[in-house]
Design goal:
EF-hand-dom_pair; calcium; alpha+beta; two-stranded antiparallel ribbon; two-stranded parallel sheet; calcium ion binding; repeat
Length: 100
């Protein structure tokens, strides 16, 4: 079941189930944390998104997420780099992007 509003649901305690959301829901969720409205996600903004989703090790994971997705090494994730962030989220955060 895809999320309907804002933040993704917290991962279940067993960690065996992935959170599901569509690509559009994922982008909208991240956009909520784009505090400066520049259309890019910074390490700090990603950290706040992870913290809001109840994740652990948010500083470490946000830094790793930005480094893994930031192809042009400007310190931000833009629309062109979103597919790399999705790969990171799928592998490291237990988020599955689905199409409905």
């Amino acid at each position: 079941m895809a999320i309907k509003q804002g933040r993704p649901p917290k991962r279940c305690a067993s960690g065996k189930h992935k959170q599901e959301m569509t690509l559009e829901e994922f982008k909208l969720w991240l956009k909520e944390f784009d505090t400066d409205g520049d259309g890019r996600i910074s390490k700090q903004e990603l950290r706040e998104a992870l913290r809001g989703a109840g994740r652990w090790f948010t500083t470490w994971k946000s830094g790793r997420g930005v480094r893994s997705a930031d192809a042009n090494r400007d310190g931000f994730i833009n629309e062109n780099e979103m597919s790399s962030l999705i790969k990171f989220a799928t592998k490291e955060l237990g988020i599955e992007i689905v199409s409905y």
